Amino acid sequence: MSSSSGSSSSSGAGGGGPMAEVHFIGRFTNEADPRFAWPGSTIVARFSGTGLDVRLADAGNNHFAVVIDDGPPTDLATSSAKDTYTLAANLPAGEHTVLLEKRTESFVGVVQFKGFVPAAGGALVPTPAPWTRKIELIGDSITCGYGNTGAGPLCPFSPETEDEYSAYGAIAARKLGAAHVGVSYSGIGVYRDYGGVTENQMPVRFERTLADDPASTWDFSYLPDVVVVNLGTNDFAKGDPGQAYVDALSGFLDKLRGHYPNAYLLCAVGSMLSDSYPSGATHLTKAKQYVNTAVESRKTKGDTNVGFVDLGEQNSGVDGIGCDYHPSVATHQKMADKLAAAIQTAKGW
């Protein structure tokens, strides 16, 4: 099912499109059986009445951000032991909005959306899709929000401390009034992963509707305005990847351009790589050089709709640090400011 399809009718991600009771933003399987896994997968709707439940079949133990009427997010923890959850109750009579966004990443579990259930006397209200601006975020654990709410740096991964809603890409999208589609996976690279494995990296998983299901082929009918690529931290985990990384990133940019002829491709570096660790390795400087080489290679081919942004290096002494030395929410906020500014400059948003 194309990103931002409606459960009662198909809709694009742009406001003013076809009306639907429910809008999906992200990679979902199909209208009859909408399953999803990537972090940032989002479901939005308008409803009348005083409350709303949601029915979800969770294969794992995911967490969601729940936003009612553009208020502050609350956390919803789901599990395979339950399928109905209250999102809102005792609201003033009238119409309200709901946003349900997957905070946790693909390996935490695939989820099936089985419908919103308004309180007695209420109903879902058909609306046009809520956003005209569209961003796709391709990355690793940083983009997932791995450990960003944890007390780190020694805490391990847990679904409770991963919050894609508070990660830099999602924050930047909200600042820009844009829908965002998350395509990120912890430990992954564009050439090799954290463990040095070169098979099944992002250029492969990127083709999937469900990250861990090779048979779930994505149709690419969804066309973002901006595609952000922040891959490289894991490619450097076993040392300098050299030209192999440049070649892999260049090839991935070629693939992205094939799928998205008119999108602005924005390559990013930050915020975990450093020139001080490992000592003498200058990984941050090399990553910037390699990414810029790939970007300039596209420009020499006549593709000027491509750019680079430095999202900065985390400063744990000032902003704290998350689990396994991942960026804190405070660092993500600073990264989001840099990303939003770069997109504003390029797109005039």
Automatic annotation (TrEMBL):
InterPro entries: CE2_N (IPR040794), CtCE2-like_dom (IPR037461), PCW_deacetylase/CE (IPR052762), SGNH_hydro (IPR013830), SGNH_hydro_sf (IPR036514). Residues 24-128 form the Carbohydrate esterase 2 N-terminal domain. Pfam families: CE2_N (PF17996), Lipase_GDSL_2 (PF13472). Coiled coil: none annotated. This is Endo-1,4-beta-glucanase. GO terms for molecular function: carboxylic ester hydrolase activity. PANTHER family: ESTERASE, SGNH HYDROLASE-TYPE, GDSL-LIKE LIPASE/ACYLHYDROLASE DOMAIN PROTEIN (AFU_ORTHOLOGUE AFUA_2G00620). Residues 137-333 form the SGNH hydrolase-type esterase domain.
